[in-house]
Amino acid sequence: MVSRKFPYDRRGKYEVGDENGDNTEGQDDVDGPHCRQPKPNIIDTNIPLILVDGIDGSGSTLDKDINEDNLKSCCRNNSSFEYSSSEKYPFPFRGIDLLAAVLSIVFFLFDVISDVVLAEEYYRFQRWIPFVFTVSFILFPHLVLNAINISWYYNDYAEEKKSEKHTKKLVWFLRGFFSLPFMLGPVVRNVEFIYYGFKSKSGSLTESDRRYFYKMVLCENADAAMLRMIEAFLESAPQLVLQIYIIMTEANHDGPLMEIVRPAAMIGSGIGVSWSLVSYQKALRLSYNRKGRKLSLLGVIFYYVWKSCEVAPRIILLSLSAAQFGYHMLVATCIHWILMSLWIGRQNQEMYDKMRDKIVHYIVIGYVLIFCFQNVQKGKTRYRAMFYYFVTFVENIIMLTLWTYFTHHKREWVYLAVIVSVPSCMVIQIIVQILYYKCVHPEHTNIWLC
């Protein structure tokens, strides 16, 4: 099997809690960067599949040509797909999954279209610097995003050529066509997720085909969530920081349409970041293909509020501080990025073998840690999470204090809004995070906080 390494995985977990379920230290047990693998195309038709932890060298694996040695190279943390006669399909495609996929498509399109309209407005008003930066923050992230998506398709295509199942060439062409010229990779993945979902529910399928489509549902759901997550931190979060910076630094001569378009674009970016974190968390849990891992609707709501209240103050303070202190804030952010990357490198991860891949991984996760916490190490995460939140909370308080002291907007509504909303979000984050782990986490009965 081709080993495709990337900081996000579609099926194998990388970080877990300890034996007593002690992964309550401020982070979910499957919330973090992983390594993606190609889709399986060879399926044993005798018994159903289920994901279990550990490799003992016995039992059938998902791919017939995988043994104990090479399985460890394609499924991180010794997690593999194995068959069990006890449960066939723990997470069938349901209406709520269809709704989530449709919402992901809507949020993605709204985010992109609103940003494009905003760039057009900057062009119409001949505001060239905001126009260039806004367009750059649209094009570059989506080129990177869809290039990643194409590379995944290429690896899947290369792997599929070795198997008995073959996808029509027209389908491969459409996947590539909509991914690069139109840059709609996440939309394509969500459409495929919906397609496989409906196919898996068909009553005319054989047991082997149903099992295949069920597995593809989990894979496409994970891929779509991964792409949306990447897009959120490459495009949505920086775009939001940029627009707040422009509002705070430039004179207001925008006209009535701009007063509608820019807030809409900012709302789209904000929703995109939070929703991507939730959909990624949900997809990772489903990729385990095991009962007891699924996030309930209430859990999704709590997780969304938690992550929104974690990311929002960070973005607001970074934007306001950049507007107030200019390059000094850029230097401070780069220092945070470097220190977090070094901190990740000190955690003795085993996700990558080559030093080049490790360095890229450290840089990527260090960048993500500018905005929110991501766990990348197995075992207890309590102290790592406490350290990260202590650092970011101190940074937030320092940024808020300095901005409120030096800003010239003390008599404007934004001043009161910031000094009220930012501390409130920080407090709400702590409360909701504790409630999430104690009340709605899938393993909350095994969680202790003291």
Automatic annotation (TrEMBL):
Signal peptide: none
One Pfam family cited in the UniProt record for this chain: XK-related
Chief place where the protein resides: membrane
A single Gene Ontology CC term: plasma membrane
Gene Ontology biological process terms from the UniProt entry: apoptotic process involved in development; engulfment of apoptotic cell; phosphatidylserine exposure on apoptotic cell surface
The organism's place on the tree of life at top rank: Eukaryota
Topology versus the membrane: Multi-pass membrane protein
Comp. bias (Acidic residues): 17-30
TM stretches of this protein: 98-119, 131-150, 170-188, 260-280, 292-309, 315-339, 359-376, 388-406, 413-437
Region (Disordered): 1-37
Listed Basic and acidic residues bias regions: 1-16
Cell compartment(s), UniProt: Cell membrane; Membrane
Keywords: Cell membrane, Membrane, Transmembrane, Transmembrane helix
Family to which the UniProt record says this protein belongs: Belongs to the XK family.
Protein name: XK-related protein
Organism: Mytilus edulis
